[in-house]
Amino acid sequence: xxxxxxxxxxxxxxxxxxxxxxxxxxxxxxxxxxxxxxxxxxxxxxxxxxxxxxxxxxxxxxxxxxxxxxxxxxxxxxxxxxxxxxxxxxxxxxxxxxxxxxxxxxxxxxxxxxxxxxxxxxxxxxxxxxxxxxxxxxxxxxxxxxxxxxxxxxxxxxxxxxxxxxxxxxxxxxxxxxxxxxxxxxxxxxxxxxxxxxxxxxxxxxxxxxxxxxxxxxxxxxxxxxxxxxxxxxxxxxxxxxxxxxxxxxxxxxxxxxxxxxxxxxxxxxxxxxxxxxxxxxxxxxxxxxxxxxxxxxxxxxxxxxxxxxxxxxxxxxxxxxxxxxxxxxxxxxxxxxxxxxxxxxxxxxxxxxxxxxxxxxxxxxxxxxxxxxxxxxxxxxxxxxxxxxxxxxxxxxxxxxxxxxxxxxxxxxxxxxxxxxxxxxxxxxxxxxxxxxxxxxxxxxxxxxxxxxxxxxxxxxxxxxxxxxxxxxxxxxxxx
Amino acid sequence: xxxxxxxxxxxxxxxxxxxxxxxxxxxxxxxxxxxxxxxxxxxxxxxxxxxxxxxxxxxxxxxxxxxxxxxxxxxxxxxxxxxxxxxxxxxxxxxxxxxxxxxxxxxxxxxxxxxxxxxxxxxxxxxxxxxxxxxxxxxxxxxxxxxxxxxxxxxxxxxxxxxxxxxxxxxxxxxxxxxxxxxxxxxxxxxxxxxxxxxxxxxxxxxxxxxxxxxxxxxxxxxxxxxxxxxxxxxxxxxxxxxxxxxxxxxxxxxxxxxxxxxxxxxxxxxxxxxxxxxxxxxxxxxxxxxxxxxxxxxxxxxxxxxxxxxxxxxxxxxxxxxxxxx
Lengths: 481, 327
Description:
The structure holds two protein chains of two kinds.
Chain A: E1 3-5, H1 8-29, H2 31-42, H3 44-62, E2 66-68, E3 89-90, H4 91-95, H5 97-101, E4 119-123, E5 126-130, H6 144-181, H7 186-194, H8 203-223, H9 238-274, H10 276-291, H11 294-311, H12 319-337, H13 340-353, H14 357-364, H15 369-406, H16 417-427, H17 436-463, H18 472-480
Antiparallel strand pairs in A: 1-2, 2-3, 4-5
Helix pairs in contact in A: 2-17, 3-8, 3-9, 3-17, 6-7, 6-8, 9-10, 9-12, 9-13, 9-15, 9-17, 10-13, 11-12, 13-15, 14-15, 15-16, 15-17, 16-17
Chain B: H1 2-29, H2 33-41, H3 48-58, H4 74-77, H5 80-84, H6 104-139, H7 144-157, H8 161-175, H9 191-221, H10 224-231, H11 236-257, H12 260-265, H13 268-273, H14 279-288, H15 292-320
Helix pairs in contact in B: 1-15, 2-3, 6-9, 6-11, 7-9, 8-9, 9-11, 11-15, 14-15
């Protein structure tokens, strides 16, 4: 039995998934809210991007189950006192173990079977500068110069085929599921779901799944035998790093935004509803907070977190646990420093709401203030909270890269997009240029952030009726009419 | 008017006091000076003597708030709180924590000009470029170009500014050799070093800001006075430039104004990438060296500038829209 390790961010992420499940259950009881969400998925871009985000969430959650594998007992030692590996692994690591193990000496180009840097080798008694064969990349080829292209071709073709088949199966299952929910006969129901006859054009999701399958298939077929995205300075597989970075980005994006909510919502509603000295005090608090340039405030807090971690080595056992605690505290810092904007927004909205008749009526009936805030004000500002949270998500992923560059981001031992970009900076000034690590970080990050942005736009359009006017598409349709 | 400005300034001073107290609490109470010394010297097993020496050299060996060993006024002035917190209000920043470096105030004074030379033209160009692009999108609002323009904006704002810098440096400086990769020079020679950071920074923020300004302009466009202006027979372009733009100026000024403190502080990342010795690069160096004194000072200075710029924005409001009463 391996020893399971529950890291701080793991616990937080699983709680978040549980909260999401709870929210989905709540949606069944709130038809109005569910209708709003259906409106989000009317937008094909939002639907497609939510598929991308779900795939990233899958990677994140696979990477959030950590354990330390049991080591085989040393010779002469009883099996009763098991020893565990000092390295903490996640399920994702185990799935990608071939990538972790196939470490090269240094840089190598994507899909290459030769090293990037030339070495002096003795050939026929003469010293020659040649690029050495890689230890793992293309190691199965006996005569690489002739076999390489063919090997790549059949593997990627097979991968494309398998990926397409997998995506088609998943899409069919999705459409069948929708048809079943709508209570239609299977064939007609699937066609109806594809054409979006019940409001949601599921074909956008199917196309996204197809694209993901076509990308992932060849990569999966090649990954065990080549370094699909090359290797970095220390010979580690770049694809593995990029996949691991998804979790870091996701954790920062979700935990840090959720961490802002209690303060922003509590204080914002209290300030708007209670007014008077409480309002003055809360306004003063967030003015103070927002008057410090954000990067500086975070830098100051993170420096203090570093001192704190230095002082309390008893809080973590392994390096991974330390890095994780640091990530968790970084999210807390981002949350504690980032609530001012939402708080200001909620205060203004509450000021408007408290003058409405139903709140006045509740007051006249003698409902206590706390109950009014909870039952009458909060549900009516919740959509603002949702919109801001979703918008913040992508901003924070971008922010993480900058913070890591400044030196107050995640631990250097933790894989993150910021860390990859940081290293890429010196790689891009080499000659010949080492571009693959940078390109990988770029590709993954843009996909993730773009998906998050499109999803956020969809949510905003569905929940904020004012924003819908601004959509270019809507404007165009209006002109036609 | 004068009285209201005074009141704003008084509130600003109060906020600054709060910032100052909070920073002091964060830097000296959450962790003791001993912890700071240990981290700064490095290594787990640092002897107490080394720590004491480090603290004495930098004046951190005094009591926090109240010095009982002194007489009279010195009881309060010869403490860490006075020297590190109160004196900031007199713009006396003290010395940096790093070994053998000088007065912070001197560094700040000389670096501020460098930051301004980058950020001031950038601020103006950014406002003009983003507003112009937004205006263009609004003019094309019933066409396909608007749709694709917004798509381009979303794509551009999904790309981290670090990518713009790295690709820009690689492409424009290394491949095309149009501008130097990084560096700094006095006088007009600086121009060629500024072209790349300013251009890339413009590009990096264009997507987000143009989309924001477009939304603001469209919101104005839906109002009644626009219909009246049209009914009067004004052309679309004239309505946009004379009426809508002027009214949308208020939200635009506010959102642009939040960048004002960075005019002085410099764009952190851009300065350090392009080797410009401004305040932004100073902060990054200080964080890397764990120079707490400099970070503390910059937090104070940053909030001072922020508060000052917000007072300026308030004044700009009343200039842009006489209906806005200060108060």
